UniProtKB/TrEMBL annotation, chain A:
Name of the protein this chain belongs to: sn-glycerol-3-phosphate transport system permease protein UgpE
Entry keyword Metal-binding: no
Key word Transmembrane present: yes
InterPro entries to which the protein is assigned, alphabetical: MetI-like, MetI-like_sf
Natural source organism: Faunimonas pinastri
Function: Part of the ABC transporter complex UgpBAEC involved in sn-glycerol-3-phosphate (G3P) import. Probably responsible for the translocation of the substrate across the membrane.
Gene: ugpE
Bilayer-spanning residue ranges: 21-39, 93-115, 127-148, 160-179, 208-229, 262-283
Occurrences of domain ABC transmembrane type-1 (ranges): 92-283
Name of a matching Pfam family: BPD_transp_1
GO terms for biological process, alphabetical: transmembrane transport
Subcellular location: Cell inner membrane; Cell membrane
Gene Ontology cellular-component terms listed: plasma membrane
Family per similarity comment: Belongs to the binding-protein-dependent transport system permease family.
UniProtKB/TrEMBL annotation, chain B:
Signal peptide feature range: none
Protein location: Cell membrane
InterPro entries (alphabetical): ABC_transporter_permease, MetI-like, MetI-like_sf
Membrane topology: Multi-pass membrane protein
One of the record's GO cellular component terms: plasma membrane
Protein name from the UniProt record: Carbohydrate ABC transporter membrane protein 1, CUT1 family
TrEMBL record, chain C:
PANTHER family, per database record: ARABINOSE-BINDING PROTEIN-RELATED (PTHR43649), DIACETYLCHITOBIOSE BINDING PROTEIN DASA (PTHR43649:SF12)
Keyword annotations of the record: Periplasm, Signal
Source domain of life: Bacteria
Organism: Faunimonas pinastri
GO cellular component: periplasmic space
CDD domains: PBP2_TMBP_like (cd13585)
Highest classification ranks of the organism: Bacteria, Pseudomonadati, Pseudomonadota, Alphaproteobacteria, Hyphomicrobiales
Signal peptide as annotated in the record: 1-31
Subcellular location per the Swiss-Prot or TrEMBL entry: Periplasm
Protein name per its UniProtKB record: Carbohydrate ABC transporter substrate-binding protein, CUT1 family
Family affiliation: Belongs to the bacterial solute-binding protein 1 family.
Keyword Signal attached: yes
SUPFAM superfamilies xref list: Periplasmic binding protein-like II
Amino acid sequence: MSEALSLRLSEALTPAKIGKGVLIALVLLWSLGPIYWALNSSLMQPVDLTAVPPHAFPPAPTLKTYSGLLGLQGAADNATGASIWPHFRAATINSLVTAVAGTLGTIVVAALGGYAFARLRFPGRNIVFGLVVATLAVPGYTVIIPLYRLMIKLGLVDTYLGLTLIYMSAFLPLALWLMRSFFLSLPKSLEEAAQIDGASRLYTLFRIVLPLAMPGLIATAIVTFLSVWQQFSVPLVFSPTYATKPLTVMIPELASRHDLNFGLINAAGILAILPPFVVVVFLNRFLVQGLTAGAGK
Amino acid sequence: MTLSMTDSYRVRVTRRLRLTGSDAREALLGGSLVLPVIVVMGALVFFPLVMTAGQSLFRIDPMRPGTPFIGMTNYTRLFNDPEVRAATANTLWLVLLAVVLETLGGVAFALLLQSMGRARKWLLAAIILPWAIPSVVNSLMWSWMFNPTYGVINAILRGLHLISGDFVWSNNRTAALVLIALVHVWKMLPLTAVIMLAALQGIPAQLYEAAKIDGASSWRTFISVTLPLTAGPLAIAMTQSTVTAFNLFDEAWILGGASLDTRSLLIEVYMTAFQNLHMSYGMALSILVMLASLAVSSVFVLRGRGETHSE
Amino acid sequence: MLGRGISRKLAAALATTALTTTLFCAAAAQAEEITVLLPSFGADATTRQLLEGFTKESGIEVNLQTMSWDDIRPKIVTSMVAGTAPADAIEFDWSWIGQFGAAKWFTPLDDKFDAALIKDMPTASVFTYEGKLYGVPYANDFRVNSVNMALLKKAGITEAPKTPDDILKDAKILKDKKVVDYPVSIPLAAAEGTSTAWYFLTRMYGGELFDKDWKPLFTAKDSAGYKALEWIAQGLHDGLINPAMTGLTDMQVTASFAGGNAAIDLAGHPYDLATYNDPQKSKVVGQVTYSLAAADPAKPMTIALPEAMGIPVNSKHKDAAVKFIKWWSEHQPEIYTAVSVLPTRTSALEGLAKDGKLQGGAEIAKYSAYTQAIFSQGTPAWYSEFSGAVSATINQVAKGQITVDAAVKQIADRAQSAQQQ
């Protein structure tokens, strides 16, 4: 038993593998170090934050900031003891709904459009594609006032539909560009074979091309989901109430002008990254599956 | 007369349709698949963009009566505005740092992920996390870490005897710009990593095997197989880096405020249009920012296309 | 397959959205509703509970929209430029009156409120533009010095410093006796709080920023504004002010002062004591008192930074909004107790002080009587550019990039070019 283990260890510990282990450790330190620090700060009593040198672990850990956010403890608001929880819950739901709707809307339109831009010939194809991609460079401030006027006229301010449409317009260019590039990288032979067999173009797209483009589709979905999830400036203007106000807009409000609570901000930040974490771990499976499916054929 | 013209046109069109019936069907399908894109982008981006571009030629200043047409005056004034010049220099530094670091780091992360087995799922999730943090929270988090007195960064540097006392990052323009770029890169690097990972997975394994049989070194394989086949996505990632760095706001605003050492172009737009209420002047600047980031990005796009074609 | 599944889900999501929207609209049609846009007091739920009292009294529903303070002005600007009212009753900061007055975005309120009520609010005059009142003050704010008496005593000082020079003298003693490394804290980041600190210091030296014709008064070496800037430069030069202050806004200075690493916080807020006396947030519980200093100690002065509520011209519920603002004005003491919004009515402050309910005690009521508008001529339309130039320039001085002479010239130039635009 122990012999087998040591054999496996000696096998494992080639210089290349050690090097890779060090690299992984560095990457983890870079990515998770600051998040650990936020977690550490969020578990401290505010008074322990101003220690020199800073505490590497909370000296008197407390879940007070979290229980305040999650409504387990009423004292989060002063005086009357009203809880932040109803708003935190509403904001979480709003974040999830808009992120899911925005992502679905974007990738459906981007997958269909990306295929057309990659494989179908139609007049104005390159010009339209170029113009759409060029809008990546449009700063939000440039369009916000006419867009606000338009959304007011359509009655879409503070609605999920309005936000979903704006997110689609903001993240379609990148999603479309990514999807087109993934479609272009697929071998044409499979589609041509299907067409010779008499399959329609749409049948080929849904049955052959999309399954092959799965890793790209998932990557695009992850990119879009996270982009929507952390949106701040759009909902700041278009989500005035908790009908649609997301976490990203709610969190800075927690810092009142009278009192800058780093612990609370950090705690809210930590809670805000949990759903994307779950989504990424979950979608990742499809990323791998899509890959094996592609390699098999 | 009109009628006969229409008739002859119809004949021509029908003839053409008959000649290339499948082409027309393809065009029709292509058009309908792209239609949602055109509707959404047209209504929500191009229409507002054209409005703003038009308005930048007028003097729109809510504090002054009237909105006279002033042609290119806003644009010519921008070129002589010392604050705009300072913000431009700051932004160009930030773009340079962000694009270089995000591209090198993102490709390295993607290669590392690609080489991993079962643990990849977890490493990818860990790498992506920074990107999920809203940039306002992210900037506040880092401002606390770089706090000269209580921050963890100075504590570590003090522990390593690299500094003594409180090193004030914001008091040195280079350090302050690097810090802002770092906070931005920490958040945006995962985007490049995800795009490049997906691109790497699109490369058929046979090509790597062929390179191995030819006895190519891993560096050689990277240059001659990986890079050319991922040039397109790389251009996308670099364009994305460029554009987001040109649009950098929260990081510079929270870490440097209105300081001329670190003020970015978007902060200048914000201050001009929304604080000082010189609306069309600020909008003109935002349009110049857009044109500048388009110009820089197009270099990568044309480069990327060239690589793919030569292969 | 996949595509169809997704589009079905999307259609379902969109249908749900449409349904909820309809329901919302139906509910809103029943009673008159006003929207109120205020900064978040960090206690939204309590604020909402309070406002139910107004609904019970008036039958008017309140849709409270809160934002963090920095985001309110861009929201107002976006809405007004787009031609819609951001809300019916809106936050109106003292610094916006010049701009919003010139833009004619708000409704004159003179004939809508009792003269007696307005008279009870000494800072109401700050919100007049060309003789008309555009905002009713609801939140009082001014600047004080927070002094950590426990640290002063350690250095053998028994009294809070009374003049700006005394502050530096005491700071020197504190530093020499190694009580603290950097005895004085003052915000020096390129942000509004830094400009405010300079105005406050200028007042301490008994001066104004501009004359009647808006000619700068701070460029001469013996002017109050010049001395104020020199004071900051001197403090930094002598190591009495932490160079790290260049990265701190006024809120961050408060958080840092609660850590006990400075003895005198210049230009603190009248609500900081709540933080300093909270054992969960502070290491200086019971040690801090407010004080004012002036070059002429017989004439203590501070600056008024009140916030008001105004009604945009395109609001469709102006009368209801007026009722709401009246209700708030009449309930200032309860609102203060619940969410710490410092009253603007002298009678409310005095009542609270008498009942011992004022954080910081009688000092707060006393100092609020010493407040003066930063611009006795009224806040100009170009204030925002001026203040941006002030904070960026002071930040440069603090980083040692330019001299005080160059700085006052730079600020004066910027003020003049802003006036010409």
